[in-house]
Amino acid sequence: MPGKKTKSAPLIMENLTDYRFLLAETQAEFWSLYGVMQSNGSRYESGLAMPLSVAMLMIIRAEGMLTDEQLNQARSLALEKINLFRRSADTSRRSADQAKRGPLKSPLAVKQVAVHPERRARTGPRRRSDRA
């Protein structure tokens, strides 16, 4: 059930900077509600097309269907889920990679590289400073 919004202003999608000023929020405060970094928010304010999901959240918030508190709770929950997914995906990926590679090798192992015979026999200056 939507609660009462603490700040309200008519949404102006054509001029997001004015809308943000009406709400008396900094770029960092305003855009973090939508999960957008300040630098990207600045780009959106300058006219760069924003993702549909961000625009939808802005409209829902402006219409009073979603409070700032609810938006923050949803953002926190999403970040938790994303971090859990990343950790489990990284762990399973690492395990699969380790299984493919076999036992760990010493970090001090030296890898021998074959040098093409023409490169070995090359003579003459290699840098401009070596010339004339």
Topology at a glance:
Layout: H1 16-22, H2 27-32, H3 38-45, H4 52-62, H5 68-101, H6 117-120
Written account of the structure:
- The chain is mostly helical and 132 residues long.
- The protein has one domain.
- Helix content is 53%, strand content 0%.
- The chain has six helices and no strands.
- The longest helix has 34 residues.
Portion of residues in beta strands equals under 5%
> Any idea how many domains?
1
What is the first-to-last residue Cα distance?
82 Å
Shape: elongated
Mean pLDDT: 76
Poorly predicted sequence stretches spanning 5 or more consecutive residues: 1-5
Report on the biggest sheet: none
Residues in helices, as a percent range: 40-55%
By secondary-structure content and strand pairing, the structural class works out as mainly alpha
Radius of gyration: 27 Å
Tally of separate helices = 6
Order of helices and strands: HHHHHH
Task: Please give a handful of descriptors for the protein shown.
single chain; 132 residues; mainly alpha; 6 helices
What would you say about this model in short?
The chain has 132 residues and is mainly α. It has six helices and no strands. The protein is elongated.
